[in-house]
Specification:
Belongs to the UPF0162 family. It comes from Streptomyces goshikiensis. It holds the Pfam family Transglut_core2. The chain is an alpha+beta fold and 267 residues long. It folds into two domains: 172 residues, no CATH class; 52 residues, no CATH class. The chain has twelve helices and four strands. Strands 1-2-3-4 form a four-stranded antiparallel sheet. Helix 9 runs antiparallel to helix 10 and helix 10 runs antiparallel to helix 11. It is elongated, with a radius of gyration of 20 Å.
Length: 267
């Protein structure tokens, strides 16, 4: 992807994130374009069309959460074999929607995006559920509906499941899902120092979301220093220190000291 195309993709990502009803699939594809230079407009259209095609494979006239959960799971987890494996945690492609559609493998949250986007297109009462350390899909009423695990091919989670018992069944918001995907990518990259460029674009996109942890600015500044971009990293540390100073002068002083150390590395 050219620099102009990359800039346009980021502008579209930011605009979509700030729209009244952000499109989850579109955001996931614009996110994936950062990782895959071959993911152009035509390839993004294919992914959207594929989600439509899968939705069209579901039966007509479904009624009730259990019927929807059963039909979507039979199609995606059964006939088409969408599921995850431990090895998928080692691949960046497991966090990219177009690759998950192609490979039918991915992380729990991306498989859940496929489940929810396909079901939503068919008219199902569906939503993502962010559990501690896992992501699943619910159908019907959030408190009483059916919950399935796309990573396990759509296996049903009973009400007594420990994960469900510990967390309220609150449907995940689109932008929270996108931020969680970007967090996963940053975690993947942080374990691989040679992938610092991936961590950087994941941070950049996270900061384009209208709501994000302020600490991401600090993390980005630290990453720039680690990448030997000392001047830019120091400038961002100093800018973040100005923000922190109003609530924690001691922390701000420590951050300014970090900026000074970064500038010293230029000598």
């Amino acid at each position: 992807m050219s620099s102009g195309a990359a800039r346009e993709a980021r502008e579209r990502f930011a605009a979509e994130a700030r729209s009244q009803r952000p499109d989850l699939a579109a955001l996931c594809l614009l996110l994936a374009a950062e990782a895959d230079p071959d993911l152009d407009e035509r390839a993004m259209d294919w992914a959207q069309i594929e989600l439509d095609r899968l939705a069209g494979m579901l039966p007509y006239g479904l009624r009730g959460a259990r019927a929807w959960a059963s039909a979507v799971t039979e199609l995606l987890g059964g006939r088409l074999g969408f599921h995850g494996t431990p090895a998928d945690y080692e691949r960046l492609s497991s966090s990219l929607l177009h690759e998950v559609l192609r490979r039918r493998r991915g992380l729990p949250i991306l498989l859940s995006v496929v489940w929810t986007e396909v079901a939503r297109r068919a008219g199902a009462p569906v939503y993502g559920l962010a559990l501690p350390g896992h992501f699943v899909v619910g159908f019907g009423d959030p408190e009483e509906g059916v919950v399935v695990d796309p990573f396990a091919g759509g296996a049903s989670l009973g009400a007594g499941t420990a994960e469900l018992a510990r967390a309220p069944r609150e449907p995940a918001r689109t932008l929270d899902i996108v931020l969680r995907i970007l967090n996963n990518i940053r975690a993947w990259a942080s374990a691989r120092p040679e992938q610092s460029a991936v961590a950087l674009w994941a941070l950049d996109l996270s900061l384009l979301l209208p709501s994000h942890p302020a600490s991401l600015r600090y993390e980005r500044a630290r990453l720039l220093v680690e990448r030997a971009e000392f001047t830019a990293g120091a400038a961002e540390l100093e800018a973040y220190a100005e923000v922190v100073d109003a609530v924690d002068p001691g922390a701000a002083a420590r951050i300014r000291a970090e900026a000074g150390s970064a500038r010293a590395l230029l000598n």
